[in-house]
């Protein structure tokens, strides 16, 4: 009797607390209206970590934000968020409705975040406020949301993968120039391997890097990881070939050091910069290499090899990598946010910021600057405009990066532990990854 | 917040003990208020802050979490939860369907966690009890040694685990330097942060961090055993080993009961160690359930499914703890 | 004064504890009679607390050798990572980013200089200090009240309360990370106080996390304090709260210190909630230390230096208060 009464009381209390707690649970403002102008003098901006460190980013952005404030009278509160927590923070902001006004997103997340409905769509009217969609390179804009929808963000920094090679090591090994096909790359890699050095450095423990390379190689094998309707096709023969080929650089060809299988903290950049490996597949690695002590005349950049010389889909040499700028739908300073987007995508800011970060401006008019005429950026720009494809812009893209990237990581681990990596084992890993996709 | 009702029980005795809510009772008022009433209200008042916080921060969110587990809470819906469709028990059915990949992966993760917990807890306990017994007698340097042993536990978990991830690197780590370069125990340098060895690495790091806790508690408990018992046993002709078996271990039994349970819960739910050691995607061999659920919710953006898995985990822990307390003798009898 | 009470308390516990054990322990029967006989002699030789122990029970040689070997191994196990942590923080970057080496090519203190500029470590440190300090203070006070109620009063729902409190220890953090976040946001919207991203939200969260274990430990400790003490205070004219503050709390200092240390450590080390609930101005050390792994490389020497900076206060505090911990735990959790 005594017990049950206490229990009833507890139940009542709990229920009451629950009502209190869940009543407001619609996630902040539940209205679907597009922002307000409640705080016209203030903006919160979440920047991604583009520079060598968070402190570097702040140093780059602070004077620009000052200029914006001078121009418009709007004070921008900047927070640079490390990549390790950026997506979690965005998700939390999305589910609660309390987030920044403007934020940077990795462009591969565009479609996934678009599906949450938290980002302001850039329809024609909004686009006109920043000068129109024509100002941006089409490939960059293609990586800003699902193809059948208005872009969810504006591209601000573009990047592409390139093949970085150590000029001196190539010369010493008697190799004339960078490889153009994967067969050549493996052949060159074998020449470079030995004496504690290796042909290529891979970031095998990093799921995101792995998934990017799986995608690029997949394109070259004629495989997409999603079909037209957005359903995953992770274990198609082409995809299996792609992943196997990438893992085989370490497993069968042995031109990458076994230790690469656990690299996830930019160790491959370090090993390449220190001359422990002759080649590296990376996006705009310039600043990273220099901060590791490699001079810019010591390395060359070439497009990533293809299977056979050719063109079209199979000539894909990179994904469209980069960063997009998005406006949070429930911003309380929509006009200011638009102004800020216009400012950040202006020709002048594009030049300054992209030059500072070693990336390529996705704004066409800004590309014609000397800062982007360095040998390596020229190559990457060429790749970006002619032979790169955006990652699948489907809402499950982030799952693809996680699942396929992890499957590849596990395969690397197998290979490094001396286990054989066969077509069957790759297919098995990939179909297991695919089945993790529930719907 | 005004809807938050008073703590369990308050609503009832309120009638009899209402006045005492008006503030801390002063000695003067003792005679005015019948003692019986004041004593009935005061405990609830004392419990109130703790209760409000527990309901607000622990129980409330937990209940929301349980609610989430019955919803299809994928990225389309996280912005507006109320719009997320109810899925009944779908999330649970998928989580426990061990023939399908999601359930299979969860089961695998569950087994890994069980093995990890059993190993880590028993090793931590074993080291703790060994060190505590060996250091029961005072000897030169005991204080220093005790401080040293306790330090790993005192370190903030992130600094401890970051250091371990530095030691366990394959190419530049100290562990491989010692066992491969210096001792020549292995033909090639093993991996510790990926592949099958990652399980061993996880156990070692967890034990390194938790055994000092066992050591501390057991050391405290040993101080409570009167020396007379040992002296008496000695006179009876019992050797060191017998004294440990006959006196030390039985005396530690009530402590062990609590200690093992606490270690079990902390280890089983441990998120920090695997997260800092392996990052967001743990290797299969070390795919602890907390990381697995984190991945199911945050990385693949399926919060309904992640919550369902958490609820299952919670049920399991409640079951185990309940069973454990029943078997080991009814827990703490505080209701006296 | 509190010293004396504490000792008396610990002794009281010891007797109570062993009495119970002896009853169901196997050793009970054999030891009881000779025990009484010997106790007299032992206390004559300086009591059981004296460092100079009676020779009859001096450990055999084999035990001493076992002790040496095992403790040496344990020392290596416990100390090696600490040693590497310290030595790596004094090495130049190239020594920590290539093959491991015991002997550094040169010693440098530059990591200790650089850590403050690579990331705003001082700010993070201050944030951690505020959050952990406030959470600890509140936790101790609230836990003391609650534990006192449970320990000294009979009331309806007591059992329910203790069971519920304990069961929260089982909640997987991940289950309520997002809901808790939402609650803070909604509370913030409702009250107009910005909770999300504030230190306040983090303080309340940590405070609640540490409450169950703190309450539970303090119940044990309070139970071990003889009721006669506070009843005497009550008859002297103190109210129940007066008795708590003037008698019980001073007698429970070791237990309270143990609880405070536990709370502080938990708050200082928490990672998951801090990663989602802090922003740049409120970021704590747990998240801030990730800043040394940059987009281009990991500054391992700075990571180790910053880790040491983050660890020193807490390790020092822990070791200094160790004596209290043992006493506190003896009566509290251990009983």
Major sheet summary line of chain C? none
List the quaternary state of the chains.
heterotrimer
Count of separate DSSP helical elements of chain A = 17
Going by CATH, what is the homologous superfamily of one domain in chain C? MetI-like
Structural class of chain C: mainly alpha
Mean pLDDT of chain C: 78
The CATH class of the largest domain in chain A? Alpha Beta
Ends distance of chain C: 24 Å
Query: Which homologous superfamily in CATH is the superfamily of the largest domain in chain A?
Result: Periplasmic binding protein-like II
> First CA to last CA of chain A: what distance?
49 Å
Order of helices and strands of chain A: HEHEHEHHHEEHHEHHHEHEEEHHHEHH
Strand order of the main beta sheet of chain A, please? 2-1-3-10-4
Q: Classify the fold: give the CATH topology of one domain in chain C.
A: MetI-like fold
Low-confidence stretches of chain C: 1-54
Q: How big is the Rg of chain A?
A: 24 Å
Task: Provide a concise account of the structure shown.
The complex is a heterotrimer of chains A (439), B (336) and C (335). In chain B, helix 2 (35-68) packs across helix 13, helix 5 crosses helix 8 and helix 8 packs across helix 10 (240-268). Chain B folds into 2 domains: 14-68, no CATH class; 91-328, Orthogonal Bundle (MetI-like fold).
């Amino acid at each position: 009797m005594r017990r049950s009464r206490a229990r009833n009381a507890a139940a009542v209390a709990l229920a009451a607390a629950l009502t209190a707690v869940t009543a407001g649970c619609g996630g902040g403002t539940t209205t679907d209206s597009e922002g307000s102008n409640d705080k016209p003098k203030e903006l919160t901006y979440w920047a991604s970590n583009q520079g060598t460190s968070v402190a570097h980013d702040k140093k780059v952005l602070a004077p620009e934000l000052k200029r914006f404030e001078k121009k418009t009278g709007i004070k921008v509160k900047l927070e640079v968020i490390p990549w390790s927590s950026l997506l979690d923070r965005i998700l939390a902001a999305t589910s609660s409705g309390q987030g920044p006004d403007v934020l940077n997103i990795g462009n591969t997340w565009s479609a996934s975040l678009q599906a949450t409905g938290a980002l302001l769509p850039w329809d024609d009217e909004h686009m006109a406020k920043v000068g129109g969609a024509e100002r941006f390179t089409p490939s960059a804009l293609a990586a800003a949301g699902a193809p059948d929808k208005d872009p969810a963000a504006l591209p601000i920094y573009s990047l592409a993968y390139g093949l970085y090679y150590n000029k001196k090591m190539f010369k010493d090994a008697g190799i004339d120039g960078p490889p153009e096909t994967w067969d050549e790359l493996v052949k060159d890699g074998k020449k470079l391997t030995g004496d504690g050095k290796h042909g290529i450095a891979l970031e095998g423990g990093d799921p995101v890097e792995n998934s990017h390379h799986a995608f690029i190689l997949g394109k070259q094998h004629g495989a997409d990881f999603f079909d037209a309707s957005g359903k995953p096709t992770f274990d198609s023969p082409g995809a299996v070939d792609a992943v196997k080929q990438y893992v085989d650089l370490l497993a069968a060809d042995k031109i990458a050091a076994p230790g690469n299988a656990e690299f996830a903290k930019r160790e491959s950049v370090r090993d390449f910069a220190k001359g422990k490996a002759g080649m590296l597949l990376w996006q705009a690695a310039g600043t990273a290499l220099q901060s590791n002590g490699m001079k810019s005349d010591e390395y060359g950049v070439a497009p990533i090899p293809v299977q056979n010389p050719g063109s079209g889909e199979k000539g894909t040499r990179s994904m469209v990598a980069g960063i997009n700028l998005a406006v949070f739908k429930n911003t309380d300073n929509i006009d200011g946010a638009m102004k800020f987007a216009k400012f950040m995508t202006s020709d002048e800011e594009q030049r300054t910021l992209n030059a500072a970060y070693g990336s390529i401006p996705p704004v066409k008019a800004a590309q014609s600057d000397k800062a982007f005429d360095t040998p390596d950026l020229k190559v990457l720009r060429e790749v970006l405009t002619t032979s790169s494809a955006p990652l699948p812009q489907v809402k499950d893209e982030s799952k693809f990066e996680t699942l396929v990237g992890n499957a590849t990581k596990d395969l690397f681990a197998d290979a490094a532990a001396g286990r054989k990596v066969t077509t069957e084992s790759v297919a098995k890993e990939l179909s297991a990854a695919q089945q993790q996709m529930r719907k | 917040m005004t809807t938050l009702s008073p703590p369990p029980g308050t609503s009832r005795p309120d009638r009899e003990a209402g006045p005492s809510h008006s503030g801390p009772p002063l000695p003067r008022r003792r005679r005015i208020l019948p003692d019986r009433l004041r004593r009935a209200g005061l405990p609830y008042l004392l419990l109130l802050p703790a209760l409000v916080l527990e309901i607000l921060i622990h129980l409330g969110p937990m209940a929301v979490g349980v609610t989430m587990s019955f919803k299809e809470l994928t990225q389309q819906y996280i912005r507006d939860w109320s719009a997320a469709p109810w899925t009944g028990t779908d999330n649970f059915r998928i989580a426990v369907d061990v023939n399908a990949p999601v359930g299979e992966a969860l089961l695998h993760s569950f087994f890994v966690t069980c093995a990890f917990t059993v190993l880590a807890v028993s090793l931590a306990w074993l080291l703790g009890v060994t060190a505590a017994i060996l250091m029961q007698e005072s000897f030169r340097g005991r204080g220093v040694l005790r401080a040293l042993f306790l330090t790993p536990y005192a370190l903030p978990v992130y600094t401890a685990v970051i250091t371990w991830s530095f030691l366990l690197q394959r190419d530049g780590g100290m562990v491989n330097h010692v066992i491969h370069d210096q001792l020549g125990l292995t033909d090639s340098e093993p991996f510790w942060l990926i592949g099958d060895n990652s399980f061993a690495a996880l156990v070692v790091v967890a034990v390194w961090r938790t055994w000092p806790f066992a050591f501390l508690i057991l050391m405290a408990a040993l101080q409570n055993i009167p020396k007379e018992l040992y002296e008496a046993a000695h006179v009876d002709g019992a050797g060191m080993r017998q004294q440990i078996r006959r006196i030390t271990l039985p005396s530690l039994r009530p402590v062990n009961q609590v200690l093992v349970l606490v270690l079990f819960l902390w280890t089983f739910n441990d998120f920090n160690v695997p997260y800092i050691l392996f990052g967001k995607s743990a290797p299969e061999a070390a795919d602890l359930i907390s990381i697995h659920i984190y991945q199911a919710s945050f990385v693949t953006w399926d919060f309904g499914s992640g919550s369902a898995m958490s609820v299952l985990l919670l049920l399991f822990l409640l079951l185990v703890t309940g069973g454990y307390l029943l078997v080991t003798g009814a827990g703490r009898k505080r209701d006296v | 004064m509190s010293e004396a009470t504490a000792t008396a308390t610990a002794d009281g516990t010891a007797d109570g504890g062993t009495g119970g054990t002896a009853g169901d322990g196997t050793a009970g029967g054999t030891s009881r009679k000779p025990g009484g006989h010997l106790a007299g002699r032992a206390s004559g030789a300086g009591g059981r607390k004296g460092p100079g122990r009676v020779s009859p029970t001096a450990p055999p040689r084999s035990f001493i050798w076992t002790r040496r070997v095992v403790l040496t191994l344990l020392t290596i196990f416990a100390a090696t990572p600490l040693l590497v942590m310290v030595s790596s923080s004094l090495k130049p970057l190239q020594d920590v980013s290539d093959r491991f080496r015991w002997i550094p090519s040169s010693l440098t203190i530059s990591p200790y200089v650089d850590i403050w500029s690579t990331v705003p470590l001082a700010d993070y440190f201050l944030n951690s200090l505020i959050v952990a300090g406030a959470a600890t203070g509140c936790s101790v006070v609230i836990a003391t009240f609650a534990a006192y109620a449970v320990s000294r009063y009979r009331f309806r729902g007591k059992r329910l309360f203790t069971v519920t409190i304990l069961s929260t220890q089982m909640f997987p953090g991940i289950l309520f990370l997002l809901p808790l976040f939402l609650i803070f946001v909604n509370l913030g919207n409702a009250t107009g106080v910005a909770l999300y991203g504030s230190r306040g939200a983090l303080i309340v969260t940590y405070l609640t996390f540490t409450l169950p274990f703190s309450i539970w430990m303090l119940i044990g400790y309070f139970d071990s304090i003889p009721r006669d003490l506070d009843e005497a205070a009550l008859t002297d004219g103190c109210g129940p709260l007066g008795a708590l503050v003037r008698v019980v709390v001073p007698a429970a200092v070791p237990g309270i210190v143990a609880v405070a240390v536990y709370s502080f450590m938990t708050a200082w080390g928490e990672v998951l909630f801090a990663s989602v609930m802090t922003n740049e101005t409120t970021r704590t050390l747990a998240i801030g230390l990730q800043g040394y792994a940059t987009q281009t490389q990991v500054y391992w020497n700075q990571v180790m230096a910053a880790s040491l900076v983050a660890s020193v206060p807490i390790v020092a505090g822990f070791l200094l208060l160790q004596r209290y911990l043992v006493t506190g735990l003896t009566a509290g959790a251990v009983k």
